[in-house]
Amino acid sequence: MKIDCSIDGKTLTLSLNSNKPLSLILSENIGDGAAVNHCRGDMCGLCAVLVNGKPMLSCMVPAFEIRGKEIITFESFQKTRAMKDIEKAYELVGAAPCRECYASRTMIFESLISDGVSEPEEIIKELSIVRCPCMDTEDEVNIVLKAIDIRRKRRVRRS
Amino acid sequence: MYEGLSSPNIHTPHNMAEFSSIITHYPSSTMWAGGTYIMTRPDAYPSKVMNAEIIFLGEIEELHRFQRNDRFAEFGSMVTLDEVMSVGKAVLPKVLTDNIREIGSRLITRRATLGGAISTKGLTTSFPGTLVALDANVEIRMIKKKRLHSRWMQLTRLLDRNGTISLPPQSMISRIRIAFTDKNCQFFRSTGSFMTDPENAMSVSFTASLDQDVLNNPTIAFTYPSHGILYSRDIDNVFSSLRFPLDESERRNLEMIIFTFIDSSFQDLSDLQKIRTKGMLRAIVDELNEKTLTMPVQD
User: What are the extents of the domains in chain A?
Assistant: First the structure.
């Protein structure tokens, strides 16, 4: 099955099995090292990517659903200005995700920050999908709130 | 890696007429709603079935609609759980919103659909139990003599003898109607993971009206993911004859009666599921006791 999609800003035409999970497409067809593992239903939450700006677990998205969609992985996201805001928030709070869940958690943080979600309950709920126990929920909330603040200040300075 | 294997054919109908023509041509095809269950199965990819046919329902606009009036809310089967929360958090029954909240992250609720949650094959999610407790109605679209027919029915009528939802062949759930209820006791609890630990997980949905220490119209549904839904009018009747608050011996009596029903329906529940069911029953009774004791006295 031929599928047209945009991955990290590149428009691609891929020849794939129609039900191949996006996590495997990223690691096998695109060679994206940050697309972590394919957990085969374990719901580890380590494969989050942004599909049309919304975070999704790439192991749950079949190939036929990515047709015409824009996918952003951590590989390209880490080079953006938005990533710098999150890194700064990690530094200010004094906590950061471990190497295992860094990519996935950061992508979910980004979606929360860009949506301006500041309700602690919502933040904790959204991040509960990542099963890695390396972070404290209080730190997660603080990181999102700090990053929202940093981004707001940056935008005010720019304008 | 498995690109050489046969890839399932994907059919994406844009309306119900196209759907009926596809399902007539490929009667054994798999229906794909949000894919949250199918994609989390260890054997989801590569597909072991040769010439598999998948009907992706996401493009049928009709199934994404929802409407509500002062009596009920009606959702298309492809409405996601996240959309359900965004349109009717304030008006929908508490037991339903609690159920959606229990699922957790919006990464899942953004993909999982109402119709998919009801008609998952091989696993019973906590939703049908909650919808049974709410006495929800569903619209079934089915092919009969090569024509598409539609029929509204109570969800309880789709429960087979084993407690699982069984749809007629070549049919699908297209709409779900949930009546707004004025029942003042609504309770939903779930323990364990339905997706990763179905042998030990369970949930309970309970609705009733508590009026002057007496329960009216109680409905209770226990859901065991690998077994099915335990719903019986007899259990409801046991509850409706009770006067609250219950003391310890009455509670034990109630527990015993309900476990007799459970044992006769599902013989092979795990020990943990039994313990969890006991805990849930206790929690329901405690909540009803508390409600009765704290209710303002009417003149």
Answer: 2-73, 81-158
Put simply, the answer to whether A62 touches B47 (Cβ < 8 Å) is: no
**B3: pLDDT strictly greater than 80:** no
- Residues 176-235, chain B: which have Cβ within 8 Å of A? 195-196
Ordered by start, the domain boundaries in chain B are 9-59, 62-179, 185-294
Q: Which architecture does CATH list for A2-73?
A: Roll (3.10)
The class of domain B62-179 in CATH terms is alpha beta
Are B107 and A48 a contacting pair at CB < 8 A? yes
Please report, for residues A9, A29, B108, B110, B157, the alpha-carbon distance to residue B82 in angstroms, rounded to integers and kept in the order given.
28, 31, 9, 5, 27
**d(CA B33, nearest CA chain A) in Å:** 11
Sign, CA dihedral A6-A41-A120-B113, equals: positive
In 3D space, the residue among B167, B184, B187, B72 whose CA is nearest the CA of residue B116 turns out to be B167
**What is the pLDDT at residue B297?**
65
3-state SS, B148-190, equals EEEEEEEHHHHECCCCCECCCCCEEEEEEEEECCCCCEEEEEE
CATH class of segment(s) B185-294? alpha beta
Strand partners, B150: B141
Residue of B nearest to A64 (CA): B10
Determine contact, residues B162/B207, Cβ cutoff 8 Å. no
| Chain A contact for B1 (CB, 8 A cutoff) | yes
Chain A residues contacting B, CB < 8 Å? 1, 15-21, 24, 28, 40-43, 45, 48, 54-57, 59-62, 64-65, 108, 125-129
Check CB contact of B102 with chain A, cutoff 8 Å: no
Name which of B3, B54, B111 is nearest A60 (Cβ-Cβ). Answer: B111
State the residue for tokens 């099995």: A17
B234-281, pLDDT tens digit by residue?
899 988 878 889 999 999 999 999 988 888 888 889 999 999 999 999
- Could you tell me the pTM of the whole model? 0.90
In the numeric block, the tokens 């065991």 are attached to B224
The rounded distance, in Å, linking the Cα atoms of A137 and A145 is: 12
